[in-house]
Amino acid sequence: MHIYLLRRIIQLIPVLLGVTLVVFLIMQLIPGDPAVLLAGEGATAETVAAIRHELGLDRPILVQYLSYVSEVARGDLGESIRSNRPVLEEIKVRLPVTIQLATASIVISILLGLVAGIISATRQYSAWDTVLMLVALLGVSLPSFWIGLLLIFTFSVKMHLLPVAGWGTFQHMILPALTLGASGAAIVARMTRSSMLDVIRQDYIRTARAKGLKENIVIWKHALKNALIPVITVVGLQFGAMLGGTVIVESIFAINGLGRLIVDAIRTRDLPMVQGGVLIACFIFVMVNLMVDILYRAFNKRIELD
């Protein structure tokens, strides 16, 4: 296990380097000049040139990139061009909000998805199976911004039960988490159903039933544990996708999270902020995948980490 963890951590380095390179090159292709945005429309050419020199934007692109990578290696993500504050400090303020939102959403996805998938699998071709899979299909198909607006209209505008926007209380978290977790719950439900159908047809499940075990014990103790391996994969990928998918949800519900911070930084060509935000999100995504691999071993001792 220790050797496996060390090897995965070493593999993390080229992944993060690749992320910084791709984001850096993409930002160079975006029209606009950060120096012009900071100086204002009426600024003189000398003022713009002075700002470019101060920000280091007049240096060759390769030099700018290598300088940024060396600073990141020392734990310095640079300073925001827009606010002149350290990027890491701004991310520290926004990141907990996004993690809370993504965590609440993935919990909703797991709870709703597992229950719906198990019911559909154990009642295959029944009315329950048809209705739940139809709802799951709608959850996968409908865009998150439409679901969010529909929830706001229903529970905030019409019923006055939950706040429209903002963050800070449990009530503020409900609608954004439901919006973000709807599609995840649908995917988990479909994967759980498919995996459970494969498992409950195995010989050891028939043997457990032949021994007289109660159906609940057979399903929840024997079948579900072995059916969770592909579901864990989906959940890990969904959590990483939710970290990136919070951009739309944070915009709809006026939540000041990491996704909204990155969008604002892209609009103002705040290169250090964009790179820092994407780098942190990528790091979290890779660490989640590592945890998923470890959970494989916890649920199935026959799986070897190599």
From TrEMBL:
Predominant localisation class: membrane
Gene3D superfamilies associated with the record: MetI-like
Protein's UniProt keywords contain Zinc: no
Superkingdom to which the source organism belongs: Bacteria
PROSITE patterns, per the entry: ABC_TM1 (PS50928)
Localization per Swiss-Prot or TrEMBL: Cell membrane
One Pfam family here: BPD_transp_1_N
Protein name listed in UniProt: Nickel import system permease protein NikB
Stored CDD domains: TM_PBP2
Membrane topology: Multi-pass membrane protein
InterPro entries linked: BPD_transp_1_N, MetI-like, MetI-like_sf, Opp2B
Transmembrane regions: 12-30, 97-119, 131-153, 173-192, 227-253, 273-296
Organism: Paenibacillus swuensis
GO cellular component assignments: plasma membrane
